[in-house]
Amino acid sequence: MRKISEEKLALERQRLEGMKEFENKYSDFEFIAGIDEAGRGPLAGPVVAAAVILPKDIFLPFLNDSKKVTEKRRDVLFDRIKQEALAYGIGIASNGLIDEINILQATYEAMREAIKKLKKTPDILLVDAVHIPDITIRQVGIVKGDARSVNIAAASILAKVTRDRLMLEYDKIYPEYGFASNKGYGTAKHIEALKEYGACDIHRRTFIGNFVGE
């Protein structure tokens, strides 16, 4: 692994301090959990949520919103977050559940599952953009939270890498849809495959009505 210069490390520390807006605001709380999800928009596969409690003094170079991090760097961060977090949990809501209760409610269910899997009980939840129903722990919904909270950014990495790896496995079962590259999103090639082959078992039926008949 290429060594990071002292100058670059110093800049990273400064950048990450700027991402602790809400950790600093709620610094009186001992265990601060960040919550985020991946996969609300695709036509296929589950929605995945993660909850992460990082040590307050942790330094994870290049931690950021998962969408702003390369795949290679996400994989490195995924392992480090799991190793160094005080606690983490991952929740998964299937495409069947999404069709049954809708994507928003399924996302909440995945988030609740992720919180339940934490080995430490959070004192406060920092949640990207939403407010999770049926949770008694104090929570704060933060617009663009994955850029304003290191715990939410860490959760976004765990959620995305977990989901991407699931879609790679599904690609082996259903290679015609290109899940390895599109991760279930509605790319032109994915939609062409839907029209040619119809839906497979992991497609969200409530999402694909415009592309394939029942």
Automatic annotation (TrEMBL):
Q: Which cofactor does it need?
A: Mn(2+); Mg(2+)
Query: What EC number(s) are associated with this protein in UniProt?
Result: 3.1.26.4
- Which keywords does the record carry? Cytoplasm, Endonuclease, Hydrolase, Manganese, Metal-binding, Nuclease
What are its GO biological-process terms? Answer: DNA replication, removal of RNA primer; mismatch repair
Q: Which PROSITE patterns match?
A: RNASE_H_2 (PS51975)
Domain (RNase H type-2): give its ranges: 30-214
What is this enzyme's catalytic activity, as reactions? Endonucleolytic cleavage to 5'-phosphomonoester
- InterPro entries, alphabetized: RNase_HII, RNase_HII/HIII, RNase_HII/HIII_dom, RNaseH-like_sf, RNaseH_sf
CDD domains cross-referenced by the UniProt entry: RNase_HII_bacteria_HII_like
The signal peptide, as residue positions, is: none
Gene Ontology molecular function = manganese ion binding; RNA binding; RNA-DNA hybrid ribonuclease activity
**GO CC annotations, alphabetized:** cytoplasm; ribonuclease H2 complex
Per UniProt, the cofactor note for this protein states: Manganese or magnesium. Binds 1 divalent metal ion per monomer in the absence of substrate. May bind a second metal ion after substrate binding.
Q: Which HAMAP family match?
A: RNase_HII_B
Role noted for this protein: Endonuclease that specifically degrades the RNA of RNA-DNA hybrids.
Family recorded in the similarity comment: Belongs to the RNase HII family.
Please identify the protein, giving its name as recorded.
Ribonuclease HII
Question: Which organism encodes this protein?
Answer: Lachnoanaerobaculum saburreum F0468
